[in-house]
Amino acid sequence: MFSAVKGQINDNLDCGGSVFVEKYWKIIYKSESVCRVTWIRHRDNHVLTAGLYSYSKDNRFGIIRKEGSDDWILHIRFTQKRDEGRYECQIATKGGGYGHVVNLFVVVPEAIISGAPELHVQSGSTINLVCLVKDSITPPNFLFWFHNSEMINYDQSRGGISVLTDLENKEPTSKLSITDATFNDSGNYTCVSSNTKPASINIF
Known about the structure:
The chain is an all-beta fold. It has two domains: 98 residues, Immunoglobulin-like (Sandwich), CATH 2.60.40.10; 94 residues, Immunoglobulin-like (Sandwich), CATH 2.60.40. Helices cover 0% and strands 48% of the residues. The chain has no helices and 18 strands. The strands form four sheets. The protein has a six-stranded mixed beta sheet with strand order 1-9-8-3-4-5, with no helix packed on it. A five-stranded mixed beta sheet has the order 11-18-17-13-14, with no helix packed on it. Strands 10-12-16-15 form a four-stranded antiparallel beta sheet, with no helix packed on it. Strand 17 and strand 18 form a beta hairpin.
């Protein structure tokens, strides 16, 4: 007799990341054995993998199975928003077939600069900019600031510049502070995150 125990049915990940969609079945062998495990994408009823073979022209899709393991894992690399949807694992045995559906949700993180798209400041005042990364399931590897395409760093001769970055916050943030603003501090400021499109603001 073949039996299976359901597990988690939903999975979330950042766009551009990599997801391992597991079979979510605990296979218990008694008198029957699994003949083939197939992964199907419901959106177009496309067979992605069957056994150890991939049947997708998109090489981002593949199967992972360790020798001797009962786990057949669908691996999707460099995920995109269009990968979102329902995936089904179908198990064929000598006694019949079984299926289980997994819902995959792909989240697209976004970088936002408070006050964008433009900010007007007085000469001699302090420029305070905050870059916030929203909807990021995993923290970005970095958050950098650029002024007119040049990276802002601490060893600039201008002085009076500080950057405070917290990547472990629920919504990762980076705060840029520039004291005693002058005309040379005007222009475009861009926040660059490892997992989002850049966000920009113009200072006048």
